[in-house]
Each structure stands twice: as C-alpha cells, then as structure tokens.
Records
---
Amino acid sequence: RPLNKVLFFPSKVACLEHLFSPKTARSCFCPLPHGVETSFSRLLRHLLSASSSLDLCVFSFSNMDLSRAVLLLHQKGVTIRVLGDKDYSAITGSQIGVLRKAGICVRCDSGSVHMHHKFAVVDGRLLITGSLNWTLQAVQSNRENILITDEAELVQPFIEEFHRLWALNDPA
Amino acid sequence: RPLNKVLFFPSKVACLEHLFSPKTARSCFCPLPHGVETSFSRLLRHLLSASSSLDLCVFSFSNMDLSRAVLLLHQKGVTIRVLGDKDYSAITGSQIGVLRKAGICVRCDSGSVHMHHKFAVVDGRLLITGSLNWTLQAVQSNRENILITDEAELVQPFIEEFHRLWALNDPA
Ligand SMILES: [Zn+2]
Ligand SMILES: [Zn+2]
C-alpha cells in the first residue's frame, strides 16, 4: 500500500532532541515542549529514515535542524548528494558550505536563473517535495506544504530529473 | 486508475493560442512554434479542464497566460476562489487585482509572514502543486516542478487546508 502524506506549515515549535539523540533526549531540560509531534518533526523523521542514500535538490538551505539531520545521516554512512542554487549557496547563513566542509558532495546549479526545487529523494524510493524552502522562516512562519509519497509514478520523474541536473552541473 | 504526473520547468516557449481559442488557433501567425506540447501547455490544459470549480492558493500571480486561463474559466461559469499573499498581491504586475475586477472572489492571507503555497484544486478532485510560482520567470527561466495527482490521500488534505485558510481570511 503506497505511502501518501501531506504536511502543512508553519509548524508548532517543539523540542527535536529525541530525533537526533534518542538515548539522551529523556534528560533534555530545554524550555521547548517535549513529546509533541509537529509537521517539522514528521518531516525530519522521514529524512532521518534514510539508510542508504539521500539526494537533495534545494533552492535555499539555512535551517540548522535540517542541516544537523543531513550531517547525522552522513556520519552514519548514508550517501548524500546536494544540489543547490548558485546564488543562494553563497548567502550568509547558507548551510551548503558547512555540508561541503563535512565531506558531503555538493554541486551548484548554474544553468538557470534559479534552481527553485525543494525536493529530497530518500533511498531512491521516497519523495519529499513541496513549497517549503529549507529555512527557519519557512518552517516556523510561512504557510507551506510538504508532500511525502512513494508512488513510483511521482518519485521516478524526480529521480531522473535529479540525475539529469547532477550530471549537467558536474564541475569536472 | 489514479492520475499521477510530474512536469518540470523551465518550459519550452510555444504558441498557446489553441488552448484558449481552439477555433481560431489554426490561423495563428505569431512567430512562436505551433503544435508543440510543453510543460506549460500541459499545466494550462489541466487547469482549463475545470468544469465546476477552481480553488487557487498562490503566493505570486503575475503570469498573463495563467491569468487568461483563470478569466476564461470564470467566463465559462466555473466557480473560482483565489487566496493570495497579502504583500505579493499589492506588487506591480500582480494579476490578483485584475481577477478581482473581473468579479472573481479573491482573499488575501494576513495570518502568516508569507502565504507561500502554489497549489490549485480543480473540480474538488485534481491537485496541481509544486515549486512553481505563477510568474513568467518561474515558467520560462527557473528549474521548477509541478505535480498533478488525483490520489485522494494527497488531494483531500489540500482541500481541507484551502477551506481552513479561506475561512480564516474572511474579511467580513
Ligand atoms: Zn528539549
Ligand atoms: Zn501562434
């Protein structure tokens, strides 16, 4: 049975520590609400479910929690490829440079006015896409949507487009 | 069998006249290519398939062809509701004022930093959503995606979110 989910934002703000370090989270004393599922915690949960690969194609990427999630997957040995927008990647607060320094494979699109996608493909089978840029404002302040699906008819074209854009922006 | 389609942009530029006036299009002598299907012509075709209702929730709306399509549906008696972003709707080139003057029901969202959605629901059964803003640049210059589906699990949440936002922004 196919997975089809929709998440709407802005998300409630809640502690996300349990998603990153399940062992120590019980002792988290931060002031945020604990034990609360939000649109954002659901989004992170689906990203963190990656066990072999994560392909990201994102216009803007400044959200620290999303960056932490990607770095955590990288540490776990998940193969990560990030395709960003050439202009946005240079902006203050962009996490693209942080990911690159951590050893993650990053390319910037230079063949269009803007690379405006905001999608992720998890393990070559789960598509996460929508209006949401990977920024704090998008998550906490804007009205946004994220659609999560493993329908092959929807996932496959995104996989192919990622491969096409990845090859197109090979710096070599 | 469910409909699941993905369109990628930028779109090739081609004459769209046949979509708007099928009778006279045969005699179009504009300099654009004719008889060519593009991502944009497919998007317009799905929008123009509306026979009873069209609910639009769009951050920015300046594209003249999309505006022409919505006005044509309005003339045909399709019930149209447009929810826009409060800041963007006031910007030069926005078609929101044009639609309002034509008698289409328009509301502007004022309860968030940005109403960043870009989705349409056709006849309460077909969802059109993605990264694409309804501008000329998005269609012709940016890398963008549009997902078209009639999967109830995906369409229904967007219908409910539209109703919620529409009621929330009732000016009365
Ligand atoms: Zn905490
Ligand atoms: Zn023509």
---
Amino acid sequence: MTALVREFGATVRALREALSWSQEQLAEYAGLNRSYVGEIERGSAIASIVTADKLARALNVPVGTLLCAPLTVDAPA
Amino acid sequence: MTALVREFGATVRALREALSWSQEQLAEYAGLNRSYVGEIERGSAIASIVTADKLARALNVPVGTLLCAPLTVDAPA
C-alpha cells in the first residue's frame, strides 16, 4: 500500500468524520458501495479518478484536496 | 466515458505535448506502459489515483491539476 493510497483514505475518513457522517452516509451521497468506502478509508482499495471525484463531490471539496498533503481537519465549530 | 475521464486524458496529452514528449517518453518517466498512456489520453482507460500521481510527478504538476478544470497549456516560450 503506497503512502498516497493510505493518505487518500485517511483524508476521506477525516473529512467524513468532520461532517459526522457514517460510512453508509458517505457511500450513499457518493453513489458508492459502503464496504468499498471502508476499504478506501483503510487504504486497502485503490480508488480510480472517477471514484475520487465522486467522493470529493459528496464531501464538497476539490478532488485535489483528497490527493494532496495529508489533511488536518478541524471539526466544525 | 465520463467527462472527467475524457478531460483527464486531454490534460495529460496537452501537458505532454507542451513538453514535446512522445507517449513513450511520458510512459518511461511515469513508469507506465506506453499503450496504457495512449488509452488514458484517449479516455478509454480510467486511471487509478496511483497512476494519476505517477503521471503528475512525471509531468511535474500537482495531481490536482490533472483532475480539475480542462487545462489550456501554453507551449513553452
């Protein structure tokens, strides 16, 4: 598992948790399978650019945000 | 083929051509198969985030650049 894949998953998880969403909710909003979202977050599945785009749209962030440096996410105030 | 996949391919091609590289050269620098680079540029293959990262590193651009709005690339002066 590359650092990129691990960081991508960690970023998706951090953004999801900052929104207080479950994996089920993120999967539904992104039009993905719930277990696949779990695999992506754990870094055990490598997302395609289409999946990355779906996740970014659901999380309302530019897709580049999911692929760049590890993200420190402040929980909403 | 989604617009994202088509635009990703077009952006990779535009950046490669702006560097006057052949597909062989880009494939070599990115550690990818030449025919796969061709499929990606034509939008007939969907890159993973790992492939997108390899291409971005080879082209020396942030990976987000390959995934965001269609890119108009000025040939080097």
---
Amino acid sequence: MQAPPRTLTVGILGGMGPAAGVDFLRHFVQACAEQVRALHLPPCDQSFPEHWLAQVPVPDRTAALQQPGAGGHQPLEPLLQALGRLAALGARSVAIACNTAHAWHGELQARFPGVELLHMAREVAQALAARGVREVGLLATEGTYRSGLYAQAMAQAGLRCHVPQRGERELLMRGIYDGVKAGDLALAQQCFAAVARDLVERHGLATLVLGCTEIPLALTQVPGVDGLALVDPAAVLAQALAQRAYGAAPA
Amino acid sequence: MQAPPRTLTVGILGGMGPAAGVDFLRHFVQACAEQVRALHLPPCDQSFPEHWLAQVPVPDRTAALQQPGAGGHQPLEPLLQALGRLAALGARSVAIACNTAHAWHGELQARFPGVELLHMAREVAQALAARGVREVGLLATEGTYRSGLYAQAMAQAGLRCHVPQRGERELLMRGIYDGVKAGDLALAQQCFAAVARDLVERHGLATLVLGCTEIPLALTQVPGVDGLALVDPAAVLAQALAQRAYGAAPA
C-alpha cells in the first residue's frame, strides 16, 4: 500500500456561529478530497491531514466593533485562547470561520507568530483578481463594513468594492440575526435576496461577495437575477487552508 | 439581554472518515439548536456549548480487527492521544464519530475515567427500545460485525439484530471503501441499497440501522422498499452528546 502523504496539522477557529463552522469544515474536507485526487494520493481516511476545529462562544463581533473603548476588545480574549490552544495542538496554519472576527486578525497573528493565520478577505481578493474580476458588491455585517476589511483587501488587489446603503445594511443584519442565527432561513433568504438585487442593479455588477459566513447558509441564488456569480469566502478560505495542509507555500 | 446558558464543553473524535466527521458535527449543531429552542434560550451563537472536533488519521479499524496479535491495536494509539487532548481541552463528554472504532471503547474509557465516553451502539439500542422497536437489521463494516458491538448492545436492550450474509457483507465493504471513502457515492448507494433490500425482505424488517458512519452519506432511502425506518446512529449519538452539553445526566 502507498505511504500516506506528508501533511501538516491545521486548525479552524469557529463557533461564529456554529452552523457556519460546520459549513466551513464541509468546504475544507471537500477541498482536501480535491487535493487527494490532484496529487494522486490513495483515496482513504489516512490521506487527509490532521485538523482540529474549535467551536467556542465568542461575544458578538459587530456589537463589539460598535462600542467605543475597551468593550470593543471583548471578542479578542476567547479568540486568543482558542488560537493558542490550536497552536499547542500543533496547527501550523489556522483559518477563522467568521468574516467579522478578522477585525482582530492583526492582534491575533502578532501574538502567535509561529502560526500562519490566514486572512479571509485577502484570500478572496487575490482569488478574484486572479480570475480577472475588477468590480464586486459586498454583502456583510455592519462590523465588517465598519472595519474596512474587504475595502482594504480589495483595494490592495486592484478591485473596486461596492457596499449597500444604510437601510439595506440593516436588512442584512436582520437576515443574519433574526434569520440564520435564530433558525429562520426563509426570513434570511428574503432579506439577503432583496439587498443583493438592489445592489447588483444599482451598479450593474456580475460578482457578489457573501462576506459573512451566515449569508451563504440562506442565499444560494438571487431570484430574478441571471448570470450573477456568488462568491463564498468560506469556500475560498477553506481551499487555501487545504493547500497549506498539503504543504503548499503561501501565495 | 438574557444570560447565556451554562453548558459543558464536549468533544468529538473524528476523521474516520473526515466526511463522516462533518456529518456528525452537522447533527450535533442541529441537536444543540433543538436544545436551545426546547430550553427557551436566546437563539444566538453564545447559546451553544464550546465543542472541539479532532479529525485525526487513524489506521483502518476493520483491517486491524482482522489482524491477530499486536497489529490489531494500531488504531488505539492515535485514538488515545486524541481523546487525551480533548480531555485536556476540558471536554467532559466525548463522542466517537465512527462505529467500528467503538471496538476500543472499553480501553479508551478505562484510560480516561474523568471523561464520559459515549457509546454509539448502546445509545442506539436504548433509543430504539424506548420507541418500542423489537427487531432490526444492521448494515455495518466487517470489523463492527466481528466485534459484536451492536449484537451485545441490542441484546442488552432486548432487541433482536439481523445481519447480512458473507457475500452481502463484502458488498457493503465495497460500498464503504471503493464508494464513500473514494468519493464514488453512486457506487456506494448501489451496494448499500442491494444489501438493505435483501436483508429487509429476508426477515420482514421495518427498521434498519446504518451502523457505519459512511453508509448514511450515500443511503437516504432504499428504492422499492416502502415504510422502512433508516436509523442513523450518528444522529442518535449527536443528540445524546448535545443533551450532555446542556447538562442532562446520562440516561
């Protein structure tokens, strides 16, 4: 029998929310299976890398980003603790399964320089630029908009990033909190689709980034809008993590 | 805002295979959401218990159980290591997302008496007995048949357990290894459905236990057989783990 491949242990920091963690893990295992096929490794359990998923309760990220002062750092403590434990388990690269939590990416990475902490928005921006995309719309949480995570990453990759208006953002937050996180997917789908349609029509967009891990759980297509590419950052990040697990150097 | 619930940290030992680990986690998060609703807790990320999933490479369980002597213990070492790490992370109860690996349940539990290691076959047998089921068919790996895991658990709960014949078992192994683990779900479905149909018709069964976590990934119904209840032990075990996380004492 062929020897199992040499893989690196990787980690996933989730729980924000837990269903999005499941979805991220599903993307990751699928991306690993693609690596197994591409590398002609034996298609068996032992061809997969060791990986650990931490689903920990983290205070609400958007609420923290709207608070001035020290309260705004509330999510940092449990994120640091979980990342430290993933590092102690041997994880060499870690992905955070939450867009908004990337507001603390810099502080987390600085505290654990021995671990490569992937950056969701940068992975997405690079992947889209490589595909020749020049302009996107972004559906996200208020916290992600405020932190400028995608605006910066897109600008660095030479992409223009359009965001919804104030009332539309409130509708997105309703879809995320009263919809997906509360288990009402029909409400969520309604909120997300309405904002998506308006944003796409206003700017004549062909690509929409679903920049909150809860959004793809309820929005898989926008009724009435044809030929629109919906980009799930979790799928892009999961693929980047799988590549690291099989030993690919960072891009 | 209502205080978050008091929950216990729990662990999941997976990787056997990794896709089955994803499926187990999905069942677990869904079972937690049901607990949140039943306990009238706020429907938000922070109402979920901290949980850790270890997906580690473990040598093939059935191959080990077919080997006489020390080779038969190969899977024990990585299982012990992962369980020890889950215990160190604070997990009070742990579920193993693989039926066959339960052949080492006794040794694992003995080494970590401070952690409650749930037993998949016992949880299933108790749940079925509570529903008034008296007779089941079992689809499983050769290793699970040989270990007598379900035979014992079913007998203790007063249920009769019918198993497939030799050639049918070989067909199941083909569906598990060349099918699910190799990514060929169509082949897997074909193998599983054929054995299920023959077993059900031979004994006039109304309940079939899918006693390998790979089987439910390809078999969600048996074409041509009406009114058959397919029991997914992973779903039953995930529910038991969720109950423990919200503080329920073992049954």
---
Amino acid sequence: MARAYNFSPGPAMLPEAVLRQAQADMLEWGGAGASIVEMSHRGPEFLQVARQAEADLRELLAIPDDYAVLFPAGGATTQQALIALNFADPGQRVDYVVSGHWGRTALKQLVSVDVNVAASGEAGGFRGIPAREEWRLSDDAAYVHITANETIHGVEFRPAWGHVPPETGKVPLFADFSSSIASEPIDVSKYGLIYAGAQKNLGPVGISVVIVRRDLLERAGQPRADIFDYRSQLKGESMLNTPPTWNWYVLGLTVRWMLDEGGTAEFDRRSDEKARLLYAAIDGSGGFYRNDVDASVRSRMNVPFFLVDQALDAAFLDGAREAGLIGLKGHRVLGGMRASLYNPMPVAGVQALADYMREFQKRHG
Amino acid sequence: MARAYNFSPGPAMLPEAVLRQAQADMLEWGGAGASIVEMSHRGPEFLQVARQAEADLRELLAIPDDYAVLFPAGGATTQQALIALNFADPGQRVDYVVSGHWGRTALKQLVSVDVNVAASGEAGGFRGIPAREEWRLSDDAAYVHITANETIHGVEFRPAWGHVPPETGKVPLFADFSSSIASEPIDVSKYGLIYAGAQKNLGPVGISVVIVRRDLLERAGQPRADIFDYRSQLKGESMLNTPPTWNWYVLGLTVRWMLDEGGTAEFDRRSDEKARLLYAAIDGSGGFYRNDVDASVRSRMNVPFFLVDQALDAAFLDGAREAGLIGLKGHRVLGGMRASLYNPMPVAGVQALADYMREFQKRHG
C-alpha cells in the first residue's frame, strides 16, 4: 500500500520530510564518507548534529538557561526509575498523582523511597483526574510526579481541569510528558523536571529527553551506578557511553521540522483542530462510538474509543486499513480503538478518519 | 566523498547491503503503509522482525535453549549496572578482572556489593592480562566478570594467553563481549552471562544483547525498579516499555548478513587475516609505527598504534582521509591511532590501510 495515515501510539508517524532526509543520508551523511549510524559519537560531525538538536529543542520549548537537557538512551520508564535514584534521599517521601496506566507503572520503578499516592483516578476507571484540592501532598516530599498525558487512558491535564500545571508549593513538580511534549507552549519554569520518550511527538524511538532545573542536580539522591547518575551524564554531554546516535539525529530532524512548521503555537492550534474533529465524530454518533473520559481532561493526543458492539471491531479495523488508516487498535489494557494525533499527524488524516467513521456507521449502525 | 573504509570503534561501519535495505525500507516496510521506525512494537510486523532477529542470533552464536536472550535499549554500560542488581545479593562479593578501560569503567557501575578486583593489568599499562594462576578469585562470589576484548586498549583474551574462556569453577563467568561478539565461534555454555552493545559487530547503536543462563534468573538480587529486572524484561519479551525498534530491526539485518556470509567460522578466518595484515604493517615498520600490547593478547578487533613522532599524527589522519580511510583517530585516553576491524570491515579495507601506512612511512620516515 502507499504510506497510510498512521495513528499508532508510539512508535508513531514521522513527518515524511524527516524520513526522506534520513533515507537520503542513510549511506553517507554530509560528504563524510559514512552514514550517521556508522560515525563515532566523538567526531565533529555527530557532535554538531547533537548540539544542534539541543539548541533547536531549547528554541522549540523555550527552555531557560538554568535548565539542563539530557538525551538518554531508551524510553521514559527508565527515567521513572532514575528520577527517584537521583532526587530522593533513601527513605524520603515522594508524591505521585496517578491518572492512568503509565502513572501506575511509574510506581513499579520506585525502590527505597516512601511512596505517597497523593491522588488517583483509578477508582473511577481513569476517566478523570482528581481535583487539585483533593490531592494529599506531603510538605517534605522530594518531588510531586504527574503524567501530563496518559497515552492509554486518553487523560490529559487540560485548562478545563483547573490550573495547569497544578501548584505544588515548594516541592518541585516532575512530569512525564512523553505523549504531549511540544503539542502546545508550556512554561518550563513551572516544573522541576520534564521527561519524555521521543517516539511520539519528538520523533524516533530509542531516545528520551530530560529537562531538569540545574539546582536540583545538587541533591545527593541514592547510591547509584555512575551511568544512572544525571550529574555524570550532564558532565559527559549524555555520552558517558555510546549514545543512540541515529535516534538523536532523527530527533533533531523532527525538532527542526516542528520549528519550520511554526513551533508549538502552531501545533497547539492544529491539536485543537484535530481533537475537535475526532471527538465530534464520536460524540455526534448517537452512541455508536463512545469515549468515556471527562470532557475536562480529554486528551488531544490519544483518543480511545469504543464501538457500540465489539463484534464490529475487526470489520472497523479492516475497513480502516483499506481506507489507508492504520494503527487504530486499542491497547490491550482497554481494548476498543485508539487514535493518536501527535504533531506529525496532519489535520487531513484526522478528517479522513472522521469521514471513515461516519461512513462505517452508515453501513453498520 | 564516496563511502570510505570506516575504522571507527563504535558506532562503526555497517555492511553496505544492510544500509541499502534500511534505506529502501525507510518510507515503508513490506507494504505495511509505514516505516519500521513508525510501527507499533506490539503489531504483527514488528513482532515478526524482533523474533526473527532472535532466531537468527541464536543460530549465529549457537545459543543453547537454556539461555535466554534480551534486547535492552542503550549500551553495555547500563548492563554493567544491571548485572550487579540482578545477580548479586546486597553486600555479596563480586569478582572483577580488569584488562583495560572498560573493565575499569564497569567498577563504577557497582553499588551495594563487595567488589574484589581479582586481577588487573593496570600496573602494566593494560598491555597484558595477568595469567589465570595470578587471579585471586573468591569461592563465594556471585560471578566473575571479564571484558573479552578491550576496545580502547586493544587487549583481548586470545588462545595464546592460555585457556579461553578462563576456568572459574562453580562461580559463573560473566563477559562483556561488546567489541568481539560474533568474530569467532564461542562456546556459550562456558559462560553464565554474555552482554554486548550492538554498535560494533552486531550492527547499529542504541541496542544491546544479553545472553543469560536461565537458572541464574532465579537469583533474588537487589531491590530494583521493575524496568531494571531481567526477569520482568524476559517475561515482557524485552518490551516492558517501547523498545528501540529501528535499532532492533537493523541488528536483525546485520545478523542475517553475517549468516549469509558464512557465520562466525568465516568471520574468524577474516579476523585472522585482517589482524595479520595490520600487525605486520606495524611490526614491519622498524619502529615507525608501534603497538605495545603483549603478543599473546593482541586484539583482532581494535588495534591501537602510535607513530614514532606524534607531530606526524595530523598529517597521517589527513592523508588517510584523502585515501578514503576514516575513523582512525585514537581514543583520548591513549592518543595516537586506532583501527577497528569489526565484521563489516572487509579485508580489502585493511589492505588499503596497510598500504597507506607503508606509503606514509616512505614519505615521512
């Protein structure tokens, strides 16, 4: 088939311009006699690529100078383990707000700290986020952890929920932004630490981004391997050992593409439009399609939805594929469908999905 | 320039056939409507790629069924931290044999264990490996750790050193094989655990391989995050969270290429030939070029060498680049030059290097 509109939750659709550049560079990068994936990370060519990626990311997200940026290998779950090791003393209280599957998974990465689940949407099936007034925060916590957007449950901290980001007083706010980073302008200075796997809004799989207020790096934390120490990683420019160079390069291409498209203000506008199109198709279906998330926290990035009869699921997915719409099968935790609308997904793709949904309903409703 | 012979130590040269396949698949893989780097790791397409890569790696290395294989994100240094967490009880003795820079770095990844450096080549400038009879091993160690090949110091456990792998009695032998895996047939059953970053002999950067005897996974180890638990990773097929899919796919292509070329027996033969060519150029230079490693443990994979006058280094590197030979600058720890001769480096590349070295000496000797 031709290239489809790919609604995968991550790894996810990349801009075609980025893929074409990666394709063109695959055998040789910039007259250097080798592909980026073959080059030493210590050579001038890759260092240029890496530093440009950081400079562009700082521009895209308006990251203040008193924040450091790391580019660790792997995904966000590893960072969930490392933030506790780096920023909480042994036995120290840490506060977690759980608004979905990934917030709950974060708890499994914690050892040797005193975990306080300050609020959780679990009793309500993760359809909402408890109001800020209901959170039971600790004065002496090392940090408060939230998941800015829940990829599986489709729950996102949105302005309609209340003040975003939530106020946490003197305790720094740490946020997993894996599936919503760069989808709108944010005020980085309101956070102590932001982390994100890149494979949703920032480009390729296999690399993450950590944005951390520099003064927090002075904390002792827990005994840990040097490779797990953010301070060592910062000193080593995220190259204590060989970094995932190709992934870093594609991340850089994707960030550059986002800047060229108009930056986070433009993606905020597009995200609004895409979400409006899809939720309208669901809510206007008279119950044929259903999304159960509270309107105040409905995600613009990941939209889980269910057909009125799950016996229709297979036909829905088959027809979607024939219409050039792929990656719509829901996560096994929830079943049903899920459409992920990250920055590289064009408005036209979501329009095509909404059209298909109406047409499918006509045939099967 | 055209594609050069790339002697980089890792990331390193890949087979051109692998790069061409990755290039062809970059916009769409196998009629699936998306690139591999855009596809869900839970979809049938990527699962097929991942499982085929494991099957091919098992064939290439003749891995017995009672060994599990993991494909973690990131590099070998992370595994150096994880093996202590997974296989040593809190405070338990672990034995390390240090034969170069990376063996020494491994020590920095250890916390909450009782580290015994059983032998070290450091006093001799890492030019040799202490004889097995000199090792001070502990009867109650969780494991004995060696570095099969030292990428920077160019020191490798070779048959001329003595019995390889070294006998460790009832204590399992753990080995960092990052820079020599698949360069010759090995008897996996002699090891408790083998790990390797892929970016040298196994293909792309950003992913590692861990081969571990299954019964060792029953050990309690230390309190650790779920994402750092090899048992959880095995249960989750190395997909507890999003794995580095593209890197895994390129690893699979590279392993397939090695099988098609004749497997480890053939690469053993080629490695012998390449090493002989290069060491002959060094040893036959009358001191113009110098490699200081004991003949019994000279690496076939990484050959550090020095010019008689380091004022000539820049001219040597410039001339090499003009001759289509890149990646020869030595690691900052040692200075001088280093040529890495991993499986994708053809014999013709090493012949070209040896020819260039003789010609350079004629002009400057």
